[in-house]
Amino acid sequence: MMKKSILPALVSCLIAGTAFASAAAGGGHGESSAAIDLSHLVTSGLGIFSVILFVGAYALVIFEEQLHLRKSKPVLLAAGVIWICVAITYKGLGAPNVAHDAIKHNLLEYAELFLFLLVAMTYINALDERNVFQALRSWLVGRGFSLRMVFWVTGLLAFFISPVADNLTTALLMGAVAMAVGGSNTKFITVALINIVIAANAGGAYSPFGDITTLMVWQKGVVQFSEFFKIFLPSVVNWLVPAFFMNLSIDKATPKASARQYPMKLGAIRIIFLFLLTIITAVSFHNFLNLPPAAGMMLGLGYLGFFSYYIKKAEKRTYDVDDNPLSHHTRAGLPDVFDLFKKVARAEWDTLLFFYGVILCVGGLSQFGYLAMVSNFLYHDLGPTTANVMIGILSAVVDNIPVMFAVLTMYPEMSHGHWLLVTLTAGVGGSLLSIGSAAGVALMGSARGIYTFGAHLKWTPIIALGYAGSIICHIIVNSKVM
């Protein structure tokens, strides 16, 4: 069954690669590829080779669990080779600065995403080290919650936290709780994580801060802040439909309480508040200072940095005692020192580098002129409704962030209701596959070998019901603006 699903996925990947364009295609840096006739580049040897290379790299990502090859490696290699092809092509056209300016713009887009994710992952690692998730597991079990109840609680929390904390951070947080409660029950963990991904993506769709795609739409001025809540009900439908069917596969057993208790360590509650303050800071940077949210997240990392120093002093630890190999002091029987940089080192680097590879790959493909071709096919030949539904499906094959980049760059003429529709589909469409959203990719790294591409694929037909239901709900509820 999985092999039968791979072929259409790869075909969609080829199409998505053309639509997955970054703003570099029209970034306005020096010379512009728009001033060059790109029609012949679509069929050029280097252009076709780049598309084939991207599809091949993504095929290796899909078969990661069988090959045991980290997903970042093939896309990193493909990204480098594709940009060599872009540079050679534009140098031959007498416009070498186009490739230079385009890749710089891609790197800037990635840098903002990278810093945002790095801080979020560092906070998650810090909370984990302070036993926050273990303590929450003990609390959930102590409340007598069954596995099915935990399934609903984590999903509900993911749906309502993601509009504030973004879908990636929320998925990492709730995923850690589900894995802590599930223990060795891999079946429950798999279904719970899929539910969390769907809920986090659906919750993030009706808030400008819930997903990077919604943030881009809001920042572009296409949808105003209050208007995002018009897709609240469609988002609810998107989550509840598959959640209902998935919860039937979970037994009502109550996990046994662990014999070992996990009290939260010094400073755990304060780190939670620092995390919330970091999120508020990132939102404020964008909303009031017109600065990138990633800069606010990095300020939040500074909060944690200073607080980690306090924890060290409070636990009577210093670098001289704990990290100096020549020290004669002993740490026997004492807890490990809280070190901020160890939390940074524990970030899911495979995931972070995977995003680099994908963004650079498709950013390179956009320079060969595929964006105009796909824009004409989707929004002129098929119409905005069909096109926006397909955008959501395409976002499941790759990632919704660059897919939304493509739509905003194309900026097709369509009604306000259709802009809300593409905001919804790009946000929730990524739930169809595990690799379709930052939340899914991150949890694949957190639950390696348990939550996999194949495990998620088994539930794709049920998730598609929720996807279709959310679109129908939007068309009915928001018919006045369609």
Structure description:
By secondary structure, this protein is mainly alpha-helical. The chain has one domain (2-481). The protein has helices at residues 2-19, 45-62, 64-67, 72-92, 96-129, 132-142, 147-165, 167-182, 186-205, 212-220, 232-247, 268-287, 293-314, 319-322, 340-345, 349-366, 370-382, 384-397, 400-410, 416-428, 438-446, 453-457, 460-477. Helix 5 packs antiparallel against helix 12. The two termini are 38 Å apart. The model is unreliable at 1-30 and 318-333 (pLDDT under 50).
TL;DR of this structure?
By secondary structure, the protein is an all-alpha fold.
* Total strand segments: 0
Low-confidence stretches: 1-30, 318-333
Largest sheet: none
Question: What is the approximate shape?
Answer: globular
Number of distinct helices: 23
Mean pLDDT: 81
Structural class: mainly alpha
Beta-strand percent range: under 5%
Question: Which range best describes the helical content: under 10%, 10-25%, 25-40%, 40-55%, 55-70% or over 70%?
Answer: over 70%
